[in-house]
Amino acid sequence: MNTMILRVAVQVLFPLLLVASLLSLFRGHNEPGGGFIGGLVAASAFILVTLSGGVEEGQRRLGFDPLKFIGAGLTMAFIAALIPVPFGYTFFEALWADFYIPIIGKPGTPVLFDLGVYFVVIGVVCKIVFSIANDD
User: Fold this and answer.
1) Which of 82, 83, 93, 135 has the highest local Cβ count within 10 Å?
2) What is the pLDDT of residue 4?
3) What pLDDT sits at residue 29?
4) CA–CA distance from 21 to each of 15, 84, 88, 102, 104 (Å)?
């Protein structure tokens, strides 16, 4: 499936999909979106690269082994769950900062959790796609 049209389309769509995934990620705790949807959009960018250039190109663009993405995401989600405990709150209780960051909003533990989900989804989807593509 390595056609000229697909290769050109991937050059245009790859950065657009990554930006769209970040926008979906950071607006997710206030509006529809979040880590899961953002991760799926980002993973679709890497799937397009894999379809046009092969597994090696998809892995090169991803930059790390998908298992490292999964591990980093699970670690972020776990840290987001633990942060409230030393401050006398319950496990997984949402804590928000008192300031606002443009585009991101008020930083807090839900944003860190969404970022963890984002990385887990990218890692899982890319691992599945790379494994299936290697079997061919």
Assistant:
1) 83
2) 85
3) 65
4) 10, 28, 34, 17, 13
How many domains are there within the chain?
1
Q: Give the Cα separation of 36 and 134 in Å (integer).
A: 25
Q: Tokens 């999964």 map to which residue?
A: 70
Quick check: 38 and 3 in contact, CB under 8 A? no
For the chain, how far is it from start to end, CA to CA, in angstroms?
A: 13
| Reported pTM | 0.90
Going by C-alpha positions, the residue among 129, 120, 126 that lies closest to residue 70 is: 120
| Helix, coil or strand: residue 40 | helix
Going by pLDDT thresholds of 50, 70 and 90, the confidence category of residue 30 is low
Range of the domain at 114: 4-135
State the pLDDT at residue 123.
Answer: 97
